[in-house]
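Illustration 12: Purple acid phosphatase.
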Amino acid sequence: MYKMWAVPGISSSSWSFLLVLCLVLKISVLSRGGITSSYVRKLQKSVDMPLDSDVFRVPPGYNAPQQVHITQGDLVGKAVIVSWVTTDEPGSNTVLYWSENSKLKLKAEGTVLRYKFYTYTSGYIHNCTLENLKFNTKYYYQVGIGNTTRTFWFTTPPEIGPDVPYTFGLIGDLGQTYDSNMTLTHYEQNPAKGQAVLYVGDLSYADKYPNHDNERWDTWGRFMERSVAYQPWFWSAGNHDIDFAPEIDETDLFKPYTNRYPTPNQASNSSSPLYYAIKRASAYVIVLSSYTACGKFTPQYIWLDNELKKVNRSETPWLIVIMHAPLYNSYEAHFMEGETMRVVFEPFFVENKVDFVFAGHLHAYERSHRISNINYEIVNKDCTPVRNQSSPVYIIFGDGGNIEGLNLDMREPQPDHSAFREASFGHAILEIKNRTHAYYHWHRNQDGYAVKAESKWFYNRYWHPVDED
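Figure caption equivalent — predicted structure in token form:
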């Protein structure tokens, strides 16, 4: 029982009020519980768009290039990989390209490949790397030389530096439903649309169709062209990209994905296209594979250990990791599926003060506080995540709109590490302002293009490691 000390001018009732207020404030500071959104959306199944939809239309003309997409082709952003498919014949591997203010057309030669999957044979898949580009420059490029030509454009990133602003779009688990189209449209119309996209895995969902229907990789490629032909997307592979189907004698993992979506893994000395790193403006982005061995002394573990030692936070202060399966999750679906990777890689993230870890897989949205569980050992049973200002924020946005629909069931009560969660489709934006500040916001599809369903300022763990909460 608390004893009330007599203080001139303060009544006992006032003391009681102050004591209760102090206790409430203390409890709120200690718990800082998360928010489960009260937004109620119309519940309905995700439905695939018909195959004769405009978004899947084959471009007109003989051997017209289709499924055009680009990604970064080197470590620093001065190269771009251009990929496209022709169906009638291989056609030309040449890409013509020129800067906005130049009449001189440059030429690059690429490669062509095909693959077979069960009874399906792919079109002719072209990959061509444009090198020695200038920073912060708009380039036009032309594919389909000799037959039907198509012209697109992209803008290279600014030169790398600690205070260079840059904006990333954040999307995952799209598929090709009406909801997928709404997500992509919502992102394209967002006034804060990114200059590039970090994509956290699960692309076409071809494995959801009989015999992993690879025609669905083609329709998805045509659907996405309106964005990925004009700005680079950085790919992380998901479980629906594995395409392991021993019942039809298809046992080569990630065969369609790796043939169609090249990555610049060799630029960061990675032996696998499934994990790699790039620098872009003031960010260092590390892409990991949730479905590749990650235990100690595996190639992915050794590569990550070596790659983190190369990061210079005076050059690229923002350190971002993307993967598919989340390491923290408070929904019933996929709960603790990322535990193996968390146990192995979380100490790396804390030691190196990673700013963000972005993931998908869960078909909903969730943001964590800065927490870690690196003290966990079976013998001490200390297995509760704790606040740790050297830890990343873990954000899940596997809410692109795929055919499997939303994951609605949440674990109750909401764990202390969960800051905000909502089961809706949408996308997110990360606006890096300088070496200390970044503005993050998540957008649900049901809102207006500029409406932020959740937003927060984040502070860099290396240059400004204060508690955002």
